[in-house]
Amino acid sequence: MRGALRRVQVGNALSAFGSGFTLPYMFVYVEQVRGLGSLTAWLVFTLFAAAALVVLPLGGRGIDRFGPRPVLVAGAVLTALGALSFGLATTHATILVAAFLFGAGVTTTQPALATMVVRASTRSTRAHAFALQFTLVNLGMGIGAMLGGQIVDVSRPGSLTLLFSIEALMFLVLAAVTGTVRLPAAAAAPDATARKAGGSDFRTLLGDRAMVKLSILAGLIFFACYGQFESGVAAYATSTVGISPSALGIGLGVNTFAIVLLQMFVVRITARRRRTTAIAATGVVWLAAWIFAGVAGLFHGGSFAAIGSMMMTYALFGVGEALLAPTLGPIVADLAPARLLGTYNAAFALVKQVAIALGPALGVLLVGAGLSTLYLVALALFCVAITVAAWRLRRVLPAVADNAAPVRSTVVAGSTQTAELAAAA
Hints:
Radius of gyration: 21 Å
Number of strands: 0
Distance between the termini: 7 Å
Largest sheet: none
Strand content: under 5%
Shape: globular
């Protein structure tokens, strides 16, 4: 990679590195370190979704009117402010305000980063760019989480304040690295059509059958996997299966390792196949993951069979995530009209945030009530629904968006810099 795309990827990886310092410890920080209780901790995560509902429509409009760079810088600075406020907050009110600021900032940066990746890559390198972005994010968060685990001490609030300060610094680095990125001239500024139309147009988006079906499918995906990953799965593994927290940490490492190891191999495989096929395969892989989770529940928590089955669950989640990385982002980019790229990315990010916020409710409710079998069956059905929805999406998805039609390598939004990023893989 060279130029703009390289800087966007580096900045994104550094911000993920900062997030890794705090994300695994946010719940325990609110509940135990600050002593604000589990209800306040739950409200913190709820406010993340509420912030997404408020800022993402505005963020999409801003990206389409002013370009992704200023929106990304504003979102990164807002995230840094929220993270720093988190580290200093000691009351219910201040922690909730910090949560809203943090959630608003993070959800603003996501569609802006996605738009910058699209505009700084070619159609032929876009899947590689999104896949590498996903890999670097997971690698950055994994390294950050490991380092944060060596610093955190629930008996010393100052250790958590340090973690949030590091996260704030990393998002400021993101703003500095990406704030000076020079996108191709044709993509950096909104065109006359966009200005005349007033920027975003949600009516156009809602009238796009393919985008609506993709959003429904994305909701299933993020609810059934990402929304369970650090809540329902963790609760099931520790309370029902009975594995130790240290083994759970190994499972998270296995997941990251699977993504980093497989991602670029998966990109080469999916480059020659329809994207809807990869998404349908993800549903099958995740169905197998939930079956292994059910098998783990048949054995004692300390046994090799139980731990091994849960490790397979986390590994298979990683395989499915690797299949999705080079598919979902490029589909959104191919469906979006040039003047509404920010709006489409913002809408996709909104679906993602809401689904991830709602996902833990199912896991905590069913596993906490001792209904683990019902929980596994429900998630298995969601995985089947993902596969079915992927095949149904194929019926309305344009051939180019489904990677079913050969296309020439051209830069999005008409840039002449065709060869600059030809080696993005």
